[in-house]
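Render this sequence as a predicted structure.
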Amino acid sequence: MNSPLKICILDNDNLDPAVVDTYVSYGAMTETMFAAAGVPWRFERFNTTRGEYPASFDPYDAVLLTGSKADSFSDEPWVKTLREHVTELLKQRKKLLGICFGHQLIAYCLGAQVGRAPNGWGMGRMDYEWVGARPLKQDAADATLSLLASHQDQVQSLPVGATLQARSAFCPIAAYSVDDRVFCIQPHPEFVPDYSAWILQKRPESVSDDRRERVRADLALPHAGLDVARYMQSFIEGQPA
């Protein structure tokens, strides 16, 4: 029996004290998502905001970058250091996964334009069209997926050599891949409704008053987070998009 893959998670934020006991970190939420999806990977987490990195990335089969409240294009020292590491990993053709901020930062390192979303905050349960050559979900006829989102930045140009995987009117580059080594997605497959609801009340400016109740109600509907987790598994384990 093959041993499970070993994944390095670069955890790019520190959660608010009000929720840290429940959710720990974005990296921990990501591990919970993969476990719920039946993905038997082993993980090691490093908090990049505190300058934590493995001594070497060589022992890992892939590196996953989490979300963050920071801007992927900012001049914060820890963000600049992270971009240096990611640029080197890209040169080494290391397999990479990116979620939200990670999706944006990898695109930025690939030379794409990243900035504030022209339509404002993406928040709550949002719908996307899957355009990848290989279906995301078992029902190949269903090309629509709903995922929980929270972002005010987005990738504004497809990186050179990348393939678009998902899109929406709000977020035209919602997911992309590069060959068999990079897969990134803008929304948060690891989010759960209670955490999205907490963000919604913490950031009231992200959603207009007339939209807030509809966004809150939509959080109770299913989302495709576990489908994304299983897609990431097949992508990293050798079934390119």
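Summary. The first helix runs from residue 17 to 23. The mean pLDDT is 94.
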